């Protein structure tokens, strides 16, 4: 995933070779492990390259195994908000400092995070969740089956005033930003 603004350029990838507590890991300027994963825990590491105009950082962010590197982060000014399954971590990009870390109470895996006017929308396998700007759950919505598609339909789309969803059985849903089902 690539994000950029007038302050920085950020690239996020999965580091397939990283092992917690190993001396053979590639070098990172900062390693963040907010949930204190250990060597034998099932985890995944996101490699975050932060390129500022004056300097660069390589950050390792260790989190749950079901972490993905597409649509996993939001950049606002000098704050990077990263979703790793049920874990949200905010990093100040100017010094790679951990600002805030929360663990969500949710069902199933979470795939992506999107910034909307009043907070964040989390696209999950079983539920779509709206969080306020302080990451407090405002509402969640579940369908008849998981929100993945075996057809060529996009299972999750955010439009101007609504969220369009297809589940595994090809059921179609539209919900508004208050979590109310329209269709």
Low-confidence stretches: none
Q: Kindly, what is the distance between the CA atoms of the first and last residues, rounded to a whole number of angstroms?
A: 32 Å
The helix tally amounts to: 0
Structural class: mainly beta
Strand order of the largest sheet: 1-2-4-5-3
What sort of overall outline do the alpha carbons produce when their principal axes are compared? Answer: globular
Level of helix content? under 10%
Secondary-structure element order, N to C: EEEEEEEEEEEEEEEE
Radius of gyration: 17 Å
Summarize the structure.
The protein has no helices and 16 strands. It is mainly β and 183 residues long.
What does this entry look like structurally?
- With 183 residues, the chain is mostly beta strands.
- It has a domain at 2-103.
- The chain has strands spanning 2-4, 8-14, 30-32, 43-52, 56-64, 73-76, 79-84, 87-92, 97-103, 110-116, 119-124, 127-131, 137-142, 156-158, 162-166, 172-176.
- The mean pLDDT is 96.
Topology:
Elements: E1 2-4, E2 8-14, E3 30-32, E4 43-52, E5 56-64, E6 73-76, E7 79-84, E8 87-92, E9 97-103, E10 110-116, E11 119-124, E12 127-131, E13 137-142, E14 156-158, E15 162-166, E16 172-176
Key features of this structure:
mainly beta; 183 residues; 50% strand
């Amino acid at each position: 995933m690539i994000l950029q603004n007038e302050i920085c350029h950020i690239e996020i990838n999965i580091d397939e070779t990283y092992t917690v507590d190993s001396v053979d890991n590639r070098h990172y300027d900062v390693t963040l492990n907010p949930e204190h994963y250990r060597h034998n825990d099932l985890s995944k590491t996101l490699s975050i390259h932060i390129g500022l105009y004056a300097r660069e950082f390589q950050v390792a962010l260790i989190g749950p195994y079901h972490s993905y590197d597409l649509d996993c982060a939001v950049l606002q000014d000098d704050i990077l908000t990263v979703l790793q399954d049920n874990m949200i971590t905010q990093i100040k990009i100017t010094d790679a400092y951990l600002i805030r870390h929360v663990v969500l109470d949710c069902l199933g895996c979470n795939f992506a995070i999107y910034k909307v006017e009043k907070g964040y929308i989390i696209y999950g396998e079983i539920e779509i969740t709206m969080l306020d700007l302080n990451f407090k759950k405002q509402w969640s919505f579940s369908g008849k089956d998981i929100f993945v598609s075996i057809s060529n339909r996009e299972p999750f789309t955010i439009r101007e005033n609504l969220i369009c969803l297809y589940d595994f059985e090809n059921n179609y849903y539209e919900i508004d930003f208050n979590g109310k089902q329209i269709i």
